[in-house]
Amino acid sequence: MNLAFLDVKNITRELLNNNNKKLKIIDNINFSVEKGEFLSIIGPSGCGKTTLLRLISGLDRPEEGQVTVAGERIVKPDVSRGYVFQNGGLYPWETIEKNISLGLEAVQGRNFDRNLVKHFIEIMGLQNFENAYPSQVSGGMAQRTALARSLILQPQLLLLDEPMGALDAFTRADVQNIVFKLWRDTKTTMILVTHDIDEAIYLSQKILVMTPHPGRVKEVVKNDLPFPRKRDSTNFLKQRRKLQEILSFE
């Protein structure tokens, strides 16, 4: 039997509340993702979506259960797993070009592949902004920079923590299209945390729906709408209604 690329088994994460009592954030989470697949995670605020993503990345550790990627148990962060934060997580004192190249330089040293940096600047449409600072570019350009910084290391798995959440509607649609093109071209396994049902339907092959606190897997919905997807199509609207019904639980 073939093992899944990403396997999340019996994951439980607890924190201490103000009364020093254990509080479950997520409880007995189980799911798997195939190599090259795009999974979105949706659910109400506070259900532990970001906590789950941090556990997959190795930035956090569970009380119970384990996460494996390509058969190896995750115990700490690794360059094979990229992470894009909601606010981009860029260094404000570094230029756009430097932000993109930082990880590559850390791995390859001072003689890092500058042509690769140039390539990602071009495919992200950041030409002529190489020497600008994050505060001098739009939110969409900052998120494209964050995507480039993660993908330039050619990760096996890219984790996206609401990277389009703070963008206006037009910019969000543009970044969504860039994410889709990068997924299609690089065949990188991607997991997206989002509050936007339409975004999940537009990008994903599977959508994991979480319950309110403590977060559990309510349902994993297969999303086999053909690409390119049209947000006003009958099947798209049917999928949206289905997810809205699943999310309407108490």
From TrEMBL:
GO terms for molecular function: ATP binding; ATP hydrolysis activity. Residues 6-237 form the ABC transporter domain. It holds the Pfam family ABC_tran. InterPro entries: AAA+_ATPase, ABC_transporter-like_ATP-bd, ABC_transporter_ATP-bind, P-loop_NTPase. Keywords: ATP-binding, Nucleotide-binding, Transport. SUPFAM superfamilies: P-loop containing nucleoside triphosphate hydrolases. It comes from the Bacteria. This is Aliphatic sulfonates import ATP-binding protein ssuB. It comes from Liquorilactobacillus uvarum DSM 19971. The lineage of its organism: Bacteria, Bacillati, Bacillota, Bacilli, Lactobacillales.
